[in-house]
Design goal:
The complex is a heterotrimer of chains A (295), B (191) and C (751). With 191 residues, chain B is α+β, with helices and mostly antiparallel strands. Chain B contains six helices and six strands; from the N terminus they run E-H-E-E-H-E-E-E-H-H-H-H. In chain B, strands 3-2-6-4-5 form a five-stranded mixed beta sheet, with helices on both faces. In chain C, strand 9 and strand 10 form a beta hairpin. The chains are: A alpha+beta (295), B alpha+beta (191), C alpha+beta (751). Chain B: InterPro entries: 2Fe-2S-bd, 2Fe-2S-bd_dom_sf, 2Fe-2S_ferredoxin-like_sf, 2Fe-2S_ferredoxin-type, 2Fe2S_fd_BS, Aldehyde_Oxdr_Iron-Sulfur, Beta-grasp_dom_sf, TAT_signal.
Chain lengths: 295, 191, 751
């Protein structure tokens, strides 16, 4: 097996071009499980931990954030809680503190597991994934990134170099159900972002379908309700029926299965609750202009 | 004086395997790709410069245990779900079972064997003994390494904080109340 | 109670104190040598090929390709087992390596030794086994009464224990029925099965292994290898937790076989997935109960049928069945009882010992019934328990009279009368069901309080010759009297080595006590299970001290010309001089008797332990997530030889019970294990573990050394039903199955 240790992005891209079968590894928290159990035996590993371009984040001109694919979760929690509130909330639930010191959003996207904790937020905030190869750079909306179970549009010669997240123009929430109170894989999860700027809302569903999913009907419904009631301008409390309907539509958008972590029926049920609750918290934040309720 | 002898199996057997493939620092091979597909990694382990040439798939955990004979770091699950293999890499705690050794060229690694100051136990080690923070002790090296990082990061101010920050270290004997008490005590002493 | 012998009171670190563990410094430094840490410069690595099917006929096994892998030293099948290819704790019904049939998912079929573990694994994958897959028998109740296949020669019933006492046709004005289920819990000790077998020049083998019972391992290895006991020598390696899961063999025979075939030391270490296949689990159970009571809440009769799924092989199922049956009515006075308890063969993973051992399954059911009865009567659940509580002098359903303290009512009152934990304060996600996963800010959260009490037998039962052996050596070292205590009893984390030192210090009035490694060069120490080691090995150590002391005092007569009642350390030094006193003593607790096979009557258990819990939980009733807020325990320990260790045991048992209540289960579908990893077999973390205040009673048992009562298991019995009772109180749901899953809390109809 080859072990490739590029020290610049250019070198990394040419290495990936030369050996497209090389498996990129940054924090390693996902890939290593497969290596340890010999479930995967790649012909080459591509170590990205020495590529400085991947390990930084910076503000973008439009007020958003360009998050290097190799920034570990711990830094997202400690450095980006205000800029990327939803993502920071999700990052806090990833694995254990030790995992969060190594694991990265780039890895989460690379694995493209429906249970990955950051996907619902990335979907909800309408993030984009920056993919690079020696052929050039393309930016793919995350909503078009996932193509199947643990599959994505990532080409074999490409690397995930960054995630582009728009400015958080409104409240964001993330909520995840697990059967233990810490260090647990999602039974299901939900991300929500309110976008007062254009009067829309974004959603993301995790662990309840072959890929992370958007609840498009729920988004349209809520966007319509907020517009019809002129609620962005004069934000009254949302009625119980609006919150419930939103929850139902989110549950309907899911395509869950029964597995050892939970039943399909429970996942749908739980998603309706998570959606209703997160909407309540986000709207409350919007109304009061308060800080994120991230206790 | 108290002794307990049921312990140094290696000493008893008298057949300790040496660090078979430790290469001298001046080999000049660091970072180079060995012909066989092996990788040479230079790093500092518990303050000592070390160089290892390994298959790229070798984890930090296996390298510590099988190449460097540092068996204090434990293998409990192979997938980052128990925390028994927690060590520090460049001051941050990581699970060594999910850390590829080959990615650590130039890194500084601290394991449980590097925590005490000679014969003097680290305050956390002492506190774990005093508060019965373990029974079988298999998770203990990982618990202590994790706790040392939590305290250093300032993340052990309240019980709730300690509980959240220590939630990546399973103790099946459930000595959690003792662990909590030990961290509280050491937090004060480490100031 | 037995009075402690006269001791020199200047001793510190004796019984009743909490001296530091002798293995503590090594453990916190990472220097304690666990079985997985063993190393030999010439060693090769052994791995096990296991069946992927729960039930299949083996048509053929082809080793050709495996043997061709460079670096492979041996590939073995059942044909290479020189002795009898059978082992088992109570029935030798399990093949060392499968012959023509596999009966569970994970059953060992072949072994490989190679110079590197990965080489061994690769070679293992090249072994070709041709299986004819058979339909698995997966339902225990059906296996007993149904018309399915017989999995073993004598049928599918491992053991049936009936109990008949009193009026079998009793009636009562208030009757509650219930059907309960307990999922398959795993011991999940963190230190995986492992050991090192070293072939010896005399044709024997030396095995260093983590186990609970060296001598029973030795016996089974000898049988399989066809070797006499003096050729199979075992030494206890560091044990990374046990909880029952190391009472059966794992790597023992396999490693010795490979060592003898290769002529090289062989190390075997399971990874976590293999560990799930490599040891027995807690029996899943289905339990039918009917309780009849008077209108003022006094039990008139209890009738029960219990099915314990023993899986493919017997392991300790017969003893688990006896426990579930004899303890299956709980610590309550009831004159008329009917019990039928079955332990059953299926094609599920083999089940055997786990902390609580049959009493856990029954405890969940009978305590659920007591709550149901309280509800039917409109009575307080503690009150209905207190009203029926056993006490000293009560008669067990086996006819055995409790001849020492049985403070059931007092334990219940202690947990009931504790101040309640504070209500939730300001929003802190870490205090919420769901934790930092941010599932609720208080919405849907309902608090519930639940109570339970349980009973567990201590030590081995039913006439078993239950003893331990202690060898004590006293000499002068460096001008001080020094003792070395040697037993074969396994320290698995519980602190037995500390207790042994404490007893010697107390009995001999000296400070310096060394604990010799446990091995088979000294007599049987019995199993580290049934909460028995402090009682039995502690008793043996005490008896050895008495024997040494007697010799010492005789020597003192010669030295001083007159008898002395007591010797100071300085006097011991002058009496001993260069002499060494060594005594080896076998010590037994008072005998028990078998159960009558028709009526289940008999003096079956030597001692009973009692514990009660109060659980306070917050349940998110919409999401079905649970946060245990507090888990208070009260337990009678007779005498706390080491108070700190006693509390540690109570905490440990309580949390394992909490785990069974809300998260721990090996999920098995048609005989296949679906979650053999710590990703999906969840164990409580520190964030799931609430404050656990403990009340310890010390009501001496006059029959036991120092009056002590076994500690480790009783809290495991009452913890689970207390947590579930609290969840019921919060939700109003019936909750008849553990672990309680979010689905059960959100998708089931209220009762």
């Amino acid at each position: 097996m080859d072990f490739l240790r590029p020290t610049s992005l250019a070198d990394a891209l040419s290495a990936k071009a030369d050996q497209p079968e090389a498996v990129p590894i940054a924090g390693g928290t996902d890939v290593m499980v497969e290596l340890n159990f010999d479930h995967r035996r790649p012909s080459a590993l591509l170590d990205l931990t020495r590529v400085p371009e991947l390990a930084t984040w910076e503000p973008t001109a439009d007020g958003g954030t360009r998050l290097g694919a190799g920034v570990p979760y711990t830094r997202i929690i400690t450095e980006l809680g205000a800029r990327l509130p939803g993502l920071a909330m999700a990052a806090r639930t990833v694995g254990s503190p030790q995992i969060r010191n190594r694991g990265t959003v780039g890895g989460n996207l690379g694995a493209a597991s429906p249970a990955g904790d950051t996907h619902p937020v990335l979907l909800a905030v309408d993030a984009a994934v920056e993919l690079r190869s020696v052929r050039g750079t393309r930016v793919v909306p995350v909503r078009e990134f996932y193509t199947g179970v643990k599959r994505s549009v990532l080409a074999s010669d490409e690397l995930i170099t960054a995630v582009l997240l728009p400015r958080a123009g409104g409240p964001q929430q993330f909520s995840k159900v697990g059967t233990r109170n810490a260090m647990v894989i999602a039974v299901c999860s939900f991300g929500l972002a309110l976008h007062p700027g254009d009067g829309t809302v974004g959603t993301g569903i995790g662990s309840a379908g072959p890929t992370p999913l958007r609840a498009t009907e729920a988004e349209w419904f809520l966007t319509g309700e907020l517009a019809d009631g002129d609620l962005w301008e004069s934000p009254k409390p949302l009625t119980d029926s609006v919150r419930r309907r939103f929850g139902e539509l989110v549950a309907e958008a899911a395509a869950p299965i029964d597995d050892v972590r939970g039943s399909a029926a429970y996942r749908r049920h739980a998603l309706s609750v998570l959606a209703r609750r997160t909407l309540g918290w986000a709207w409350q934040d919007y109304r009061t202009g308060g800080d994120q309720r991230c206790a | 004086m108290t002794q307990y002898e049921g312990i140094t199996r290696r000493g008893m057997l008298g057949l300790v395997g040496a660090a078979a493939a430790t290469v001298p620092l001046d080999s000049g091979a660091a970072g180079a790709q060995a012909a066989s597909g092996e990788v040479t990694v230079r790093m500092t382990v518990n303050g000592s410069a070390t160089s290892l040439t390994v298959d790229p798939r070798v984890t930090l955990l296996d390298a510590l245990r099988e190449r460097l004979q540092l068996t204090g770091t434990k293998k409990g699950c192979d997938r980052g779900q128990c925390g028994a293999c927690t060590v520090h890499v460049d001051g941050r705690r990581v699970v060594s079972c999910l850390t590829l050794l080959a990615t650590l060229d130039g890194a500084s690694v601290t394991t449980i064997e590097g925590l005490a100051d000679g014969d003097r136990l680290h305050p956390l080690q002492q506190a774990f003994i005093e508060h019965d923070g373990f029974q079988c002790g298999f998770c203990t090296p990982g618990q202590i390494m994790s706790a040392a990082a939590v305290i250093a990061e300032g993340g052990a101010r309240t019980d709730a904080e300690i509980r959240e920050q220590m939630s990546g270290n399973i103790c099946r004997c459930s000595a959690y109340p003792g662990i909590l008490a030990a961290i509280r005590q050491a937090r004060t002493e480490m100031r | 109670m037995t009075k402690p012998a006269e001791v020199t009171r200047s001793t510190t670190g004796g019984i009743g104190e909490s001296p530091l563990r002798p293995d503590g410094a090594l453990k916190v430094r990472g220097e304690f040598a666990y079985s997985s840490d063993l190393w030999h410069e010439d060693m090769v690595w052994g791995v096990t090929l296991r069946s992927p099917h729960p039930h299949a006929r083996i048509r053929s096994v082809d080793l050709t390709e495996a043997l061709r892998v460079p670096g492979v030293h041996a590939v073995l099948t059942h044909q290479d087992v020189p002795g009898t290819n059978r082992y088992g704790l109570e029935h030798a019904d399990q093949p060392v390596l499968a012959v023509d049939l596999v009966r569970y998912h994970g059953e060992p079929v072949a072994l490989v030794a190679a110079d590197h573990p990965e080489t061994a694994r690769r070679a293992m994958k090249r072994i070709k086994v041709d299986y004819e897959v058979l339909t698995p028998v997966s339902d225990a109740e059906h296996a007993v009464h149904g018309d399915g296949p017989r999995l073993h020669r004598d049928g599918n019933v491992v053991r049936h224990v009936p109990i008949r006492r009193g009026d079998q046709n009793a009636t009562a004005p208030v009757v509650v029925h219930g059907v309960y289920e307990v999922g398959m819990q795993d011991q999940a000790f963190l230190g995986p099965e492992s050991g090192l077998a070293v072939p010896a020049e005399d044709g024997g083998v030396d095995l260093f292994v983590a186990t609970q019972w060296l001598h029973v391992d030795q016996r089974q290895i000898c049988y399989a290898l066809g070797l006499p006991a003096d050729k199979v020598r075992l030494t206890l390696a560091g044990v990374g937790g046990a909880f029952g899961g190391r009472e059966d063999l794992s790597i023992q025979v396999h490693a010795c076989l490979l060592a003898r075939h290769t002529g090289k030391p062989v190390k075997m270490v399971y990874n976590r997935e293999e560990s799930f296949y490599g040891h027995v689990h807690r029996h899943p159970a289905k339990l039918y109960y009917e309780h009849g009571a008077t209108e003022d809440g006094r039990l008139v009769y209890v009738r029960s049928r219990i099915y314990l799924d023993g899986g493919a092989y017997a392991s300790s199922t017969p003893a688990v069945v006896a426990n579930a049956a004899t303890l299956g009515f709980g610590p309550y006075n009831v004159d008329n009882v009917t019990m039928d308890c079955w332990g059953v063969y299926t094609n599920n993973p083999p089940c055997g010992a786990m902390r609580g051992f049959g009493a856990v399954q029954a405890g969940f059911a009978y305590e659920s019934q007591m709550d149901k009865l309280a509800a039917a009567l409109g009575m307080d659940p503690v009150e209905v328990r207190v009203r029926n509580a056993m006490s000293e002098g009560s008669t067990m359903p086996t006819g055995q009279v409790l001849d020492s303290a049985a403070p059931v009512a007092e334990l219940l009152r202690l947990v009931r009368d504790r101040p309640m934990p504070a209500e939730r304060g300001e929003l802190d996600l870490r205090a919420m069901p769901g934790g930092v996963s941010n599932t609720t800010h208080g919405e849907g959260v309902v608090r519930g309080v639940g109570y339970a009490v349980g009973v567990k037998n201590i030590c081995f039962s039913e006439g078993f010759d239950d003893y331990s052996t202690a060898r004590l050596r006293l000499e002068v070292l460096g001008g001080e009297p020094a003792a070395t205590i040697h037993t074969a009893a396994a320290e698995v984390g519980q602190g037995l080595v500390t207790i042994e030192q404490q007893i010697v210090r107390t009995e001999l009035g000296i400070q310096q006590v060394t604990v010799h490694p446990a091995d088979t060069t000294v007599g049987n120490g019995g199993s580290t299970s049934a909460s028995r080691q402090t009682y039995v090995t502690g008793g043996a150590v005490k008896a050895a001290c008495e024997a040494v002391r007697e010799k010492l005092l005789k020597l003192a007569v010669t030295r001083f010309g007159e008898p002395r009642a007591n010797l100071t350390p300085a006097e011991i030094v002058s009496v001993l001089g260069t002499e060494v006193i060594e005594e080896t003593v076998e010590w037994r607790h008072r005998p028990t008797t078998a159960l009558d096979p028709e009526t289940g009557q008999g003096f079956a258990h030597v001692q009973y332990g009692f514990a009660a819990h109060r659980a306070v939980v917050d349940v998110d009733v919409e999401l079905g997530l649970v946060k245990v807020v507090e888990l208070a325990c009260a337990q009678d320990v007779g005498k706390a030889l080491n108070p700190q260790a006693v509390v540690g045991q109570i905490h440990g048992g309580s949390v394992q019970g909490l785990g069974l209540a809300v998260m721990e289960e090996i999920q098995v579908t048609e005989g296949k294990v679906r979650n053999p990893s710590f990703t999906d077999y969840l164990i409580p973390t520190i964030l799931d573990t609430p404050p656990m205040p403990v009340d310890v009673l010390e009501l001496a048992d006059p029959h036991a050394p120092y009056g002590l009562r076994g500690v480790g298991e009783p809290p495991t019995i009452s913890s689970t039903p207390a947590v579930v009772a609290a969840i019921r109180a919060a939700t109003g749901l019936a909750l008849t199955r553990v672990p309680v899953r979010p689905e059960h809390l959100t998708l089931e109809e209220p009762r």
